[in-house]
Amino acid sequence: MTALITGASSGIGRDMARVLAKKGISLILVARRTEPMEALKKELSVPVEIISCDLAKKENIYALYEKVKEKNIDILINNAGFGVFGKFCETDLERETEMISTNVTAMHMLMKLFLGDMKARNSGYILNVASSAAFLPGPLFSSYYASKAYIHRLTQAVAYEMKRDGSNVYIGSLCPGPIRTNFDEVANVRFSIPSLSSEYVAEYAIKKMFAKQKVIVPGFSMKAGRVLAKLAPESLQMVFAYNTQRKKFGKK
Prior knowledge:
Elements: E1 2-6, H1 11-22, E2 26-31, H2 34-43, E3 48-52, H3 58-68, E4 75-78, H4 93-121, E5 125-129, H5 142-164, E6 170-174, E7 179-180, H6 183-187, E8 196-197, H7 198-210, E9 215-216, H8 220-231, H9 234-246
Parallel strand pairs: 1-2, 1-4, 2-3, 4-5, 5-6, 6-9, 7-8
């Protein structure tokens, strides 16, 4: 089997590569930073191809697909993404649109391109990395929350289409809470609730992916939070989300 992982230079993407390598699965690692992927390649005992690529640009996504499409990708993990923290009227527009291109457009395009091939073969796995943020509105982190909601809802809808078509292709979304990675440094935030290790989340996610669980939520607290979010009115969800985000940098 061969797996393609975006955002593979650090965090969950890097650790998912390690988990899959232990299972003897060949890897294609994609990220903007080459050096961390080269270091990862040296520690793995399976064939690893490294592709340096800025997924915020559509032409790079098409080029990536053309480069690897003949390799019959069995597993696609759409993990690339980052967040922009702050009030909507104050965040940088260019940085925000770059985030939307990476989190949403790249995921959408890669899933659509590779899904066609997988459906034709009637086999394959697509795991889209969303977030527990997908379950709530997100004042002070609005665009990031919205991007993760897009990932999660699109994944659910397309998975149902595959089910109705009788396809064996798996499509699922990973919706973790805070994880100890460099995400908080990129987004310029500090998480206000306990976080899980990226190693644990990666191991859990791959296990559930192969079990074909459609929505993967690691950790008891996030599972409980998802249930509570379903029960709480949107007005209360908004207050909770705002206060959670506000704690990251003090009162706004």
